[in-house]
Write the structure tokens for this entry.
Amino acid sequence: MAAYLTAQCDVLASNDVGMRTGTPAVHKTRVAARRLRSTLRIFGDVVAADPAEELDAELQWYADLLGAVRDRDVLSSRLTKQIAQPPAGPEFPENLTPAKPAILNSGVTPRGEVYLA
């Protein structure tokens, strides 16, 4: 169990550094946090209760924070694909061009497809 916990902690630490330098490691980091939390619960008889509960709370907070980032990453990816390939039809005339994907990073919450005339 100790080796498994250590491995998950190593994933958290290395991915933290990676995310700070632009490496897309949010998903793997969330998985490591879930695995740590599950292991602490499964082996609750072996670990001290108070420190395990504190760590569980911190890991839950971290996973929630990363969840919001992951949701935005997924949304951005999906919208970028949709913007790059607008549907054909009379409601999308040929003289409209898709907005640049950078608009997704503008801080504005996308509410649909964005087109520039």
Summary: Residues 2-84 form one domain. Residues 108-117 have pLDDT under 50 and may be disordered.
